[in-house]
């Protein structure tokens, strides 16, 4: 989803509590440039999230020791991956590589640390690989599409969500998800490239989450999440190292927590950030 979906209200809430927020659209989505449109690459998005941290760290309004990540749904997936894959060499600035031209290796602190001070993942999609029986049809279509692209054809697209709530790779989302977003006036184009599903076949953060530690992590999991199954979120949380916190949204589905309980839910997240980042 583009950043205009839900995120501006979340950012405003945190900004009113003296937290600087940076929101942006991934490449090829919403207001960002890049072709083909709606061509989603989770690995690239995690890399760009690292770049965003670097860019934000240069802003004079920002305390570089208190940068946190926040992501929802697929953004929550990318946030988990970015936090797991992010390390820096102690004693080196973010903007330049370490210099090893010194009299002795003993003079260098070669230990690694993380510049992300905390992270919050809300209702994250954990495993996008889909059902085994959908693997071959997607691979066949993806190869056909790639051959056509080499000949100059336009990229092939598939729906993001079918009318019955299913996804082309076999995952099941809530059938009323797209109509609900439309009623809310949230601009979401219901199509993604075939190559998006090709990449999804190999993408699961389940094997990455153990590397998030020692970054303090909070997972916010709706009790009855169908779009991003609750059981998958809990399985990922179990694999995460300490420090970590789990907030189960009792009685809530994937997105219905945004109606009525936002202040209570976000205040718990704010409390987590204050405790972990000491502000």
Automatic annotation (TrEMBL):
Q: Per its UniProt record, what Gene3D superfamilies does this chain match?
A: 1.10.10.800, alpha/beta hydrolase
Q: Which residues form the signal peptide?
A: none
Please list every transmembrane segment annotated in the UniProt record, as residue ranges: none
Q: Which InterPro entries match?
A: AB_hydrolase_fold, Polyketide_trans_af380
Q: Which family does it belong to?
A: Belongs to the polyketide transferase af380 family.
Official protein name in the record: Uncharacterized protein
Where does this protein come from, organism-wise? Gibberella intermedia (Bulb rot disease fungus)
